[in-house]
Amino acid sequence: MNGSYLAVLVATLILSIPLVNAELSDYPHDDDGWLTRLAGPERLALGDEFGCHGMPDVSILDDPNSVDACISYVNGLISASRWGNNTLTFGLPEHSSHHSNSEELANSLTASGIKVVDDVDFGDNFSNFSSFEVNAGSLEKSIASIDLIESASQENGIVIMSWIAEMEDLNVRRDRDVVAWIEEQPFWFTTPGEYISSQKSVEISSYNNSSSIVKVQQPSLQSGYWSTPGNSLISASGINGNNLSVLSVKYSNGTELYQLNSSVRHLQEGWRFANGSLHLSLLPDTVAFIEYDSNESIESIHSIQDNFNGMTPFIVFGHHVVDLFEWSSGFKDSSIRFTWLIEPRSVTQMDWILPIVAGIVGIVTIFQMRRLIRSDNPSSELHRHLFESE
């Protein structure tokens, strides 16, 4: 084989290194294996929520159809919550409601079953969405602020934070002191999907003045929401206007409902009597009987929507989560619960400049070798050994 042909062949082989990773999907992506291994199942069992933040390298404003692609990606790998499989939460770019495609985006979100967005303006303009916008800063070191958290709790009655574990390929540290402080506060550590699904108070089925027993029923599950306990605050007064004390709460079969204490901060069925009122959490379609102190007849009883265990809701969004292990590893033993806004990884592609440089170097090296060999006037046998295949 002639040496010049060999040089061309080598250059062609180098330049033909695969550069395109072809995908059947219209939205090429790489899976995050942690969603199905270790990190995903562990966080799901703890009570975290899995939502969406879009497909890689695609704007959901320019391509609203990508909403369903992201949801399909998440649903194909993990359930959205321990309470329900369907994804309820989607993270939106800023000023989404002002984009020319905002209505198309809203339609895509609705068709995909989304109930929650993280943009107040979008929620205001499209009233079929609940909005949970960050109001208390973020958990990163030197950014997290106890003052912001306290202000959000007092002014809004809910604390919503964000968490980003990686910026420009650099790992970000959480603020350990602030996280430790948060874990000591009387917060209900929840997620948006869990919160909106639990916003149903019980219906007072029956009671009378001669009995100390009140029958209540939790309404049926709303279509499209999760089967979470509903949270109620129930107040009963006697003929003298006094708040009546609760002695017990039982299911219709006579089994006692779990009695909560003030340190329970993750949603579950149960009850706690405090400050003259009953905090009650019941699953949909559940009937319960509340027994009040019988020293005084029941004159009136009222039920309103409540937060779980009478606590302030606390929500954290994990933004643009492409590596669940990286995002969640610092919170393995934390009581905080997260809403992971998942974004699939971009498809790994080789940089064009690398094979080009390699090809040039290869060609130059071959021709330089030939020039040196010829200048040394090697024997034909050596020339044949170097440049011809046997």
How would you explain this protein's 3D organization?
The model is unreliable at about 1-25, about 350-355 and about 385-390 (pLDDT under 50). Strand 3 (about 115), helix 5 and strand 4 (about 130) form a beta-alpha-beta unit. By secondary structure, this protein is α/β, with parallel strands linked by helices. Helix 1 (about 5-15) runs antiparallel to helix 10. Strands 1, 5, 8, 17 and 18 form a 5-stranded parallel beta sheet that branches. It has a 4-stranded antiparallel beta sheet with strand order 9-10-15-12, with no helix packed on it. A 4-stranded antiparallel beta sheet has the order 13-14-11-16, with no helix packed on it. The radius of gyration is 31 Å and the shape is elongated. It has helices spanning about 5-15, 40-45, 65-75, 100-110, 120-125, 145-155, 175-180, 190-195, 325-330, 355-375, 380-385, and strands at about 50, 90, 115, 130, 160-165, 165, 170, 185-190, 205, 215, 230-240, 245-250, 270-275, 275-280, 285-290, 300-305, 310-320, 340. It has 11 helices and 18 strands. The chain starts with a helix and ends with a helix. It has 3 domains: about 5-15 and about 350-385, no CATH class; about 20-195 and about 310-340, no CATH class; about 200-305, Sandwich (Immunoglobulin-like).
Overall residue-averaged pLDDT value: 86
Low-confidence stretches: 1-24, 350-354, 386-390
End-to-end Cα distance, whole Å, is 10 Å
What's the number of helices? 11
Any idea what the shape is?
elongated
β-strand number = 18
What is the number of domains? 3
Q: Give the helices and strands as they follow along the chain.
A: HHEHEHEHEHEEEHEHEEEEEEEEEHEHH
Described by strand count, sense and barrel closure, the largest sheet is: 5 strands, parallel
Radius of gyration: 31 Å
The percent of residues in helical segments reads 25-40%
Strand content: 15-25%
SSE class:
alpha/beta
